[in-house]
């Protein structure tokens, strides 16, 4: 069946709330030409890499979405449409033919061809971090310069959604300069070219005048990492930046009251959760045996954490308590799953029954500049656990260190992290975080808690081996039930995605939380 324009869409499920209220502030107005030529965007942190296969992380993906394209383009509502592949057809359950867009050029003028696609998939597969993004691919054959055949290892129902994650790089350029230089001076086919990257200060981009979708409206873009929340808000209030992500929860009202600004928010896809080492007999930061292996201890830890208080007092109401790792619109969500409710007295009883009447000590590893109020949430968790006898030592660090520290899982027993499923499918999260480590290439690459359950792995294998989305969903739901019982993670809350914007720009959030500047426009 030939597909000219395949939309595997999730309907746009959330209403964007834009609040315009009275206030004052801002610098003297510029000319219309000046305003329409440049936008400055402040994120809470700098990208980890401009190599699109270096990491799968929010602010990193957000910046890279402006530099690179994929075969499939993911729209703001998570539905998909043709990208560098203008059409495709499925020959059988495991064989797809993709017809590539002709006339597309990389930022350096190199023509985009099938060789770049094949090289990009291999480059991604060779990554130590994101190889899972292409683990379903068996091989890719070049039919001609603008046609490829992609064969999957097994039937894979969400193929097109996953292809939207794999950014295409310039084979000729990367082979000539190497990964290190490519990371500093990236070359893509996307709407913006990188002019300069001064790490932890700014990334300057200019419009790709020959972009295949058409020339971008905004000519110049600057991404600035501003980790300090007050400074980020102040930069918006003063007019130094026109858009900020991750609005500090305590600054929302301040932005709403300013007549020259907009506060824009949607319920987000990102889950904030605690990873727990529930498998190993000996875990790094606890003396003696690993208490998390005992189901009573795992339940006690959940009962000791007051999620509602965290949402109300730490997140100022700008979050949504989670009972599982998936929202209703994600394949793998199971209706009716409820996490243990807050009950510190019952938690103490369970700890006593498990042989820990005086509790135990553990280190909680957490970032201090990746998620809104991340370190404050970690502090709240530590304080709440202390009330039932579990003494928590906090190990806080910037995200530039954090992910590399916890990824191998050799140093961590307990950590706070986040995950988003922009594919609308929980499979990637389960494959990356909870599939048995070193069992299958590309699987379990970030299994920080060393979790292992053969029944869970089997469900994931079955889910990844069917072309029927209904069957895949059923396998993922079964896997959800297994982790709900085993508790290798503790879901805390789903973030609200909140932005502050200058009143003179048209900006609508994307469900994947990427800031795709091509879709931003100055009001006329």
List the helices and strands and how they pair.
Layout: E1 2-3, E2 17-19, H1 32-35, E3 38-43, H2 58-64, E4 72-74, E5 80-82, E6 85-92, E7 95-100, H3 114-125, E8 137-144, E9 147-152, H4 159-163, H5 171-184, E10 192-198, E11 202-207, E12 220-225, H6 229-238, E13 243-244, H7 252-256, E14 261-276, H8 295-304, H9 307-314, E15 319-321, H10 344-353, E16 361-367, H11 374-386, E17 391-397, H12 399-406, E18 414-419, H13 427-433, H14 454-463, H15 469-486, E19 489-502, E20 505-506, E21 521-522
Parallel strand pairs: 3-12, 3-13, 16-17
Antiparallel strand pairs: 1-6, 2-14, 4-5, 6-7, 7-9, 8-9, 10-11, 11-12, 13-19, 14-18, 14-19, 15-19, 20-21
Overview of the molecule:
The protein is α+β, with helices and mostly antiparallel strands and 524 residues long. The protein folds into two domains: 19-25 and 35-260 and 503-522, Periplasmic binding protein-like II (D-Maltodextrin-Binding Protein, domain 2, 3-Layer(aba) Sandwich); 268-496, Dipeptide-binding Protein, domain 3. 27% of the residues lie in helices and 23% in strands. The protein contains 15 helices and 21 strands. The strands form five sheets. Strands 2, 3, 10, 11, 12, 13, 14, 15, 18 and 19 form a ten-stranded mixed β-sheet that branches. The protein has a five-stranded antiparallel β-sheet with strand order 1-6-7-9-8, covered by helices on one side. Strands 4-5 form a two-stranded antiparallel sheet. A hairpin with a 2-residue loop joins strand 8 (137-144) and strand 9. The longest helix is centred in the C-terminal third of the chain and has 18 residues, at 469-486. The radius of gyration is 23 Å and the shape is globular. Mean pLDDT is 91; it is low at 1-29.
